[in-house]
Amino acid sequence: MPRRTPDPRTFLPLTPAIAHILLALADEDRHGYAIMQEVDRITGGSARMGPGTLYGTIKRMLAGGLLEETGERPDPALDDERRRYYRATPLGRAVLDAETARMATLVGAARAKRVRAR
Amino acid sequence: MRRSAEWLYGALLYAYPPSLRRAYGREMRQCARTALAHDGSRAALHLFIDLLHSLPSEWRHAARRQSGFRKGLTMAGLANDLSYAFRLLRRSPGYTVAAVLTLALGIGANTAIFSLADATLLRPLRLPHASQLVAFKWSASLPDYREWATRSDLFTGVAAASGIRATTELDGAPEVIDAAFVSPNYFSVLGVHPADGRLLGAADESGGAIAAVLDYAWWRDRLGSDRALVGRTIRVNSEPITIVGIAEEGFRGISLQIAPKIYLPLGSMPRLRGGVFGKPGALENRGMTWLTAVGRINSGVSVNAAAAAMDAMYMRQHPEDTGPQRTQIELEPLAERVLGGPDAPSVRKFVTLLGGVVMLTLLIACANLANLQLARAASRRREIGVRLALGAGRARVGRQLLIESLVLASVGGALGLAVAVLMLRLIASFQLPGGIDIEGLALGLNRAALAFATLVSTATALLFGLVPAWQGARTGPLASLRDESRSTSARSRLRATLVAAQVALSLVLLAGTGLFLRSFAAAVHVPLGFTPAGVATVNVALGAARGFDAARARAFFDQALARARQLPDVTAAAWTTVLPVNGSMSAEVTIDGYAPTPGEDTHFYMSEVGPEYFRAAGTRVIGGRPFAVSDTASAPLVAIVNQTAARRFWAGRDPLEGRVALDRDHFIQVVGIVEDAKLRALDEPPAPFLYLPFAQASGPFGLTRAILLVRTSGDVQALLPRLRDQLRAADPGAPIVSLTTFSWQVRRLAMPQRMGAVLFAIFAALAVTLAAIGIYGVTAYVAALRRRELGIRIALGADRARIRALVLRQGALPIGVGIAAGLVIAAIASRLAAAFLRGVPPRDPFTYGAVAALLGAIALLATWIPARRASRIDPVHALREG
To answer: Could you identify which of A13, A59, B461, B466 might form a hypothetical disulfide with B409, taking C-beta atoms 3.0 to 4.6 angstroms apart as the criterion?
Structure first.
């Protein structure tokens, strides 16, 4: 954990990979493969994430204090191999909140100008 | 497949910056494994795309981090170069895709052939210290083997094995499999370990329950890797046997032709095999040589010394065996034996030939890439000049260019592994000389193949990257800034040389294709002596051990034949003991009224055939009559000979009045003459052949194995399942070894020619395409360099046809030189292919002329397009641009 919590807004805007990983970890701790699956699910398969992108991003997010590891344990739904689990830190959650707020503002402004999602 | 994909992914992780791989490599592999297990090939594609996508950004991050920390300059520079190279390649996708595809095809083909060579020539036996293993050239009887096994001064151990085809019951239906009886020390001499349970030992020879060890691949593929099988009892030839273990993965016996599925103790042979082997004392008979002996030689003993010592011992123990015909004990390395003994040189040559072909293709690809790189280097001179002017060292610029090549080669190599997997699938559908079962080799991308692919990729990068790197580094900063595109003539000379080389190598491949195609066409038109189209063949194995005594077998043969003939569209059907192309049987024959010269070979190939055999097989009866239904076991014995026998042994006499004897005194009347038929190879010289009626057959083993030939006027594929039903109905217990078409079996005869023609054609097409691209590129490049000059000429009144001729002439020179050089190389190299060519000389002038003309035409077309464009230059534009 960094000693001084930085302002979450300095992280914005998030890259899609970071946003998706934070979103995937918003409700529960997951291991790498479960994150990939969850991203696949929440984006409806439009943004499939591979291990290279995932772990490169995780590495930087850990360094930036957005994530932390919560130890190794097997996933009962998969094989009995031990896997490392990840959790969003309070900073990570704050960053996701800030990004969501930023996007909500954007969406609101777009709606006001009658820009529609097609 | 999944496992190799996972392995491949693990290897490709090394392309990431080490910090990421060290921290997360294990987890990334874990993810890949789970994804592959869930999603299969879609996941594989996704993983590959992710790899290409994330590699550049990871290296960019690594570079940023390192320069931020001011860590060692060199490493930072390297990471910078890498990320720069990735960005640059992404910026010119056309060039990148062309280069990567070219490399993937070249490297993939080489990796595939390497796998084949590895499994046949380099390491055919995946056994510890395989070079110590020797095979006794001649088969041995049990007493022989016991004598040989005593020589512990020469061998660490001598093992013996004997293969049979046995019937086992799986899922309630009889299934014929290859099995082997092995001596108790078989596995220990070879150095094989159990994958599960235990292997066979001396205790298994003592009678009682028969123990058996399963082949790993069979256990995995046919029995679904069921570990509970160890300890269970199954039936082999109706006898219960207990499975005690599974042999090591990858062990496939001591032959590349046949891999036994079940290993049984030597002592169980009489019980399981029956027949003459079941008689008391049969195994002690010295006349019955049924064992293949394999020894592991003591270190320090040479193969020749061991053979001499063994032979001396044999002579001491068997003083009665003298004279020129005496048995001589010979040893050969087991690695040689597994390649098919006498066929080994042929296999070696064929694989070497394939290796040469793919190597040529890769060389052509390299020449092409070097050419592309040169063209790019020319257009990048300005960029390089700026870097030099800003103070970059020449070595640094050279390294940058080399790293670009390495990145290209790595990506191409990775994609090449996919190409290799596809190629291996294609190769597995062929057949090698020597009857080597390619499918059984289980060719795949193992560690050795991956290492080879890496090596080839790196070598390729150096080969096509060094020249441009050197040239780039040599550029003077001022010269390149002053003038961006006018190049020295030295560079176009280099490019012309590369084109000439490409044309030459392409011509070699084209000539090979032409020769193999002609030879394949000739092979297809060789008169076979039978007409395989429209004929179905069924191979059955009966025998006392499977509950078939003579009466039951005879009843089955009659029943099955009657039922087959009643099927619609069937025009003829007959049993035979030997099908052409599917083995042979021969015997020494005495010919009435013919005195052989001393030492003359009077062996006849022979076969016992039913009445309609010649009609079913499509073999013409030239004189006399075919066998008739009346030629029964109780009728007088009759025989039919082939034309060669008639000519050789009845010269000037009428063979139809002749008689032959198999045992010197029981003469058999010859009643017919038929045309010669090929037996094993298309180029074999015709040999004497003797046909006897199937009904009068009586071998020492009784009639156990026979083949039913059924000719139809309808669809032969549709006949196969109906035939199976009829045979089942005739006797549900009769094991069917194979059910297929005659044509399919005959295709194997022309297999080397077919394989050569197909593979050569693929690579030649690739080479010619690459060469055409190269020629086009160079001509277009040179024409572009001379654009201004050509413009001036046109402005001064040169006529356009002349301009076209000018450019054409310049392009034609390297082509002409290349074709000439290619013809010379092809003529020399054709010697390697000569062994596999049939009906066409290796230096066939027609083929050489035709391929030279074809290549010339393609090359001229590739020159003509830029020439035409040059002749249409608008002089005003051309001059203004300058």
So the answer is: B461
Residue B40 has pLDDT above 60, yes or no: yes
End-to-end CA, chain B = 57
Which token pair is A88?
Answer: 């969003």
Taking CB atoms and an 8 Å limit, are B20 and A59 in contact across chains? yes
Whether B211 has a pLDDT exceeding 70, the answer reads yes
For residues B283 and B653, give the distance between their C-alpha atoms in angstroms, rounded to a whole number: 46
List, run by run, the mean pLDDT of 10-residue segments along chain A (118 residues): 66 87 91 90 84 90 89 77 88 91 90 76
- Amino acid present at B24: Y
The alpha carbon of residue B425 and the mean position of all alpha carbons in its chain are separated, in whole angstroms, by 10
> CA-to-CA distance for B680 and B129, rounded, in angstroms?
35
Contact A33 B49 (CB under 8 A): no
* Percent over 90 (pLDDT), chain B: 17
Cβ partners under 8 Å of residue B566, min gap 6? none
Return the closest-CA partner of residue B306 out of B290, B288, B277, B329.
B329
* DSSP structure string for B769-822: HHHHHHHHHHHHHHHHHTHHHHHHHHHTT--HHHHHHHHHHHHHHHHHHHHHHH
Nearest residue to B81 (alpha-carbon basis) of B97, B61, B59: B59
Nearest to B303 by CA among B341, B326, B334: B334
Which of B250-254, B828-832, B875-879 comes out lowest in average pLDDT?
Answer: B875-879
Res B766: pLDDT: 80
Element holding B420 (H helix, E strand): helix B394-428
* Chain B residues within 8 A of A41 when measuring between CB atoms: none
CA dist list (Å): B784 to B162, B630, B788, B867: 72, 87, 8, 10
ipTM summary value: 0.85
pLDDT, residue B486, reads 47
Could you give the count of Cα atoms lying within 13 Å of B526 in the half-sphere of its Cβ?
Answer: 24
Its pTM stands at 0.67
Residues 28-87 of A with CB under 8 A from B: 31-33, 36, 48-56, 58-60, 78-79, 81, 83-84
How far from chain centre, in Å, is Cα B841? Answer: 24
Other C-beta atoms closer than 10 Å to the C-beta of B881 total 9
Residue B493 has pLDDT above 80, yes or no: no
| H runs (alpha helix) in B628-741 | 643-649, 716-730
CA distance A51 to chain B (A): 5
At residue B358, the 3 state secondary structure works out as helix
- pLDDT on residue B105: 87
Mean pLDDT, residues B861-871: 84
Sorted by sequence, the CB contacts under 8 Å of residue B150 that are 6+ apart come out as none
- Torsions phi, psi for B152 (to 5 deg): -75, -10
> Which of B19, B30, B50 is facing A52, going by the closest CB pair?
B50
Separation CA B30–CA B33 (nearest Å): 5
Cβ pair B109, B355 in contact under 8 A: no
B358: left (phi over 0), alpha (psi -120 to 50) or beta: alpha
Contact map slice: B 761-790 vs A, CB within 8 A: none
Identify which of B27, B49, B55 has the shortest CB distance to residue A55.
Answer: B27
Nearest alpha carbon to residue A69 among A115, A19, A35: A35
Instruction: Search chain B and give the residue with CA nearest A57.
Output: B58
pLDDT confidence bin for B69, thresholds 50/70/90: very low
- Residues within 8 A of A (CB atoms), B 36-95 only: 46-47, 49-51, 53-55, 57-58, 61
Given B31, B51, B55, which is nearest A33 (Cβ)? B31
Task: Count CB atoms within 10 A of the CB of residue B328.
Answer: 13
